[in-house]
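User: Can you predict the 3D structure of GGDEF domain-containing protein? Sequence below.
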Amino acid sequence: MSWLDQLPENVEELKRAGHLQQNGRSAEALPILDEVLSTAIDPHTRAYALIQRFGAMINLGRIAELSTAMTVAANAVREIPDPYLRGQMHAFAALGAHLQSNLDRGVTHLVQASRALAAVRESDRETAWGWHDLAMAYSYLGFHGHALTAIEQARQVGAAVGLAPEIFAAPGIRLRNAVSLDHQGDTDGCLRVLRDIDAELSRYVAIGADQMRPGSRAAYGYALARRAALGEETEANALQWLTGGGDSVRTRDLHHLGHVCLRIAAGRPQQALSMLDAVPVSPEILGAAEPARLRSICHAAAGDHAAAHAADRYAFRLAVQRIDRLRDGYLDGVAARLDAQETQRDADRYGDEMLTDPLTGLPNRRQLERYVNAMLERGERAAIGVCDLVGFTAVNVRHGRHCGDLVLQRIAGVLNRVMRRGDFVARFAGDEFVVLLPGAGTAQAAEVSRRISAATNAENWQVLVPGTPIGLAAGWSEVGTNGRTLSAALAAAAANRTPTR
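Assistant: Sure. Here are the predicted structure tokens for GGDEF domain-containing protein:
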């Protein structure tokens, strides 16, 4: 008997919803889960349904709804001493944090998920899928070795309850590993991994394996197409595998980029470039560097080696940013532990998910107000800057809101990157960001403003939103000086805004 069979109500409905999700049909699973939640009373049943609903939101890329869905699921699990439920919830929460570009929170959830799933005493189907989802989370966040370990655990737990190994093939894990190597300049290493993926697919086809998940098709298809774009022929037909696969954002983007690769392989690089320009893809599926790397391959195939070199440099820079963020997260973790030894943390400073902007992962207006109020109570002051995006309206009109969201995420990354340790960055509203420099005066604010301007201008906006220049207008003031409140300081800073240079 599986974990799910032990629930007192709605077992068949939950199994049906789970089967739909595993087969890439999350949009069909959602109304079933909502119906269960409208009638279920048992706490375990409701917690499981809420977690699966959270997972469906992730699959469908409904980023704006993730914070609320995760909060509700986490609250339902908090009072239930069940390691499987905790592990599954944290695995999905790590994926959600990744989609919201909050790497630090994502890593925290990875650790919690691994510990919870390791505490499950009896093997069953649900625990196997929990390990599978944790493996996916590890992979998306860039921890490829941990992802391979977790997916092997999923296979072992699954085998113990009679699940076929191809169910947990998870080619997307090694695919992300392969393109990561290519982004960092190791194309030979990338090709070795892609050949292994091709060989695995050939083995599954040869033995007539019929339990491969639809979502795996897109990953196999892209691996074949990516290998062809790098100049190697494959026995399997990439186009055949780039069909179906479900309704997830991941499948949609892999299909699109796979056809870009096939245009390159067919000797039509200009057509491939047009396809890259026409349809933006999520930077979270194969890494923000993948479209830039494909542009480089296109330019090289077209004989424009200068453009290929420039695109390669940009791809490498994007890839290195993730590594730098991991290192910064490690340093910040050490600093946080030292801080915890010296002062008693405000218990709800990090506990309220509603203090975080779901799109950028930055603190929101509410958290900014709490931070400044605490600072003013201590009698401290700070330089405060209000930064608005220049050209953002044109982005939404010309390229759509999805590209607008990508621009906001990019700017959030720029601001996080150039701030000094101890500075505070928040998304205040719309395209307006606020930066707080504790203890700083005019000179330090001017220097930070110059760094923000240089970093913004260095971004390759032409690749992300062609023909739509992006800039920042910033104004500065002080909060805490002569009793100036946050609202007064923000008003003064907004009144002083000028385009950064």
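The CA atoms of residues 475 and 497 lie 4 Å apart. The chain has 22 helices and five strands.
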